[in-house]
């Protein structure tokens, strides 16, 4: 991350019930004018989005209760 001593590295994740729900939720979020930091009245982003890392993962193990 090449974080400086003044910066804090944060880790988080979101679980979606399925890909269709994720796609619909992401589309709705991206279309929401409140998510546009360049829109008048919206606060600036609190982090450098160019340094954000994200990805999707396929489930490889499922744990079931007996």
Automatic annotation (TrEMBL):
Task: List the residue ranges of the region (Disordered).
Answer: 30-49
Q: Which residues form a coiled coil?
A: none
Q: Which Gene3D superfamilies match?
A: 3.30.70.100
The family database entries (SUPFAM superfamilies) matched by this protein are listed as:
Dimeric alpha+beta barrel
What's the protein called, per UniProt? Answer: DUF1428 family protein
- Species of origin reads Pseudorhodoferax aquiterrae
The upper taxonomy is:
Bacteria, Pseudomonadati, Pseudomonadota, Betaproteobacteria, Burkholderiales
